[in-house]
Amino acid sequence: MEKQIDQLTSQAVELLRHLIAIPSVSRDETRAADEIESFLSNAGFRPQRHNNNVWAMSLHWDDTMPTVLLNAHIDTVKPVATWTRNPYYPDVEDDCLYGLGSNDCGGGLVSLLMTFVTLGNVSCVGTNYNLLFLASAEEEVSGKDGISSVLPLLPKVDVAIVGEPTGMQPAIAEKGLMVIDGVAHGKSGHAARNEGVNAIYEALDDLVWLRDYRFERVSPLLGPTKMTVTVLGAGTQHNVVPDECRFTIDVRTNELYTNEEVFEFLQQNTKSELQARSFRLHSSSIPEDHPLVIRCKQMGMTPFGSPTLSDQALMAFPSFKLGPGESSRSHSADEFVKISEIRHAIDTYLHLLA
Asked: Least packed by Cβ within 10 Å: which of 7, 296, 326, 327?
């Protein structure tokens, strides 16, 4: 078994190095999807594709059995300006593989892929579940051509493991996201005279309330629902009283509130005109007594709640995040994943699904 894990790790690292060298910023993942599709074909599977989402079914598929989905995304954010390395050159130093997307979530992608290739072949006919692998696109921007476009095309899924970086601890709950644009209205006038209604001052009461309000329902895993004003803009020049003040609210909901419920509550408690960009990115969770979560605990893992959003928000079935790497490295300069983390992930996935 140890030798097999070593071989799978070597293949995973080699594939990840190829993927790092292929720029795959969200909505530009075609070549990365080509690479995944080619790998699955060469491994003896029959991959399918929609846009830049690539999936494959285990070769021993049985419609009467439940299905486990293994999912990770292939897109990356744009590299930040403070990189000191070439973000598209897969440097390996000691135990670290550097490169854009190596941690988020290349390590999880290749680890889950090796797990699928190992367990999804005909020799695993004795298992009591189907295995489905999906490499999805546009995760970093929650794009319309990402996972939401492909989920209706997949077979029925009973549970999903999402390969986001969690230090290989199961994130069994995840905060949702709702972005709200607000506008406070005033009346323009000359700043030298006592004229007009200053929209900035009109917005102040709402901004203070948004800063100070605390939601009552606090999740044991995710903590409180949190809202933060992140963008603010008003005015055209120094001597004109502004007639509009625009602001943006970032809302992170726990599983005890729906996005629609929070939005309605904000409308009732603010004077400004509010508009939600979307309600679709809800908080997600999986019961602690789910067999896979129980198995994680038996293997010594500790479930937790994650504040960061993933494609889980768009899944209508139970799911949890479990992947190599650390969330704190995501979207950072000189991003890396440890080769030992990839090896541990493959070993863990194989034992979890055994």
From this structure: 7
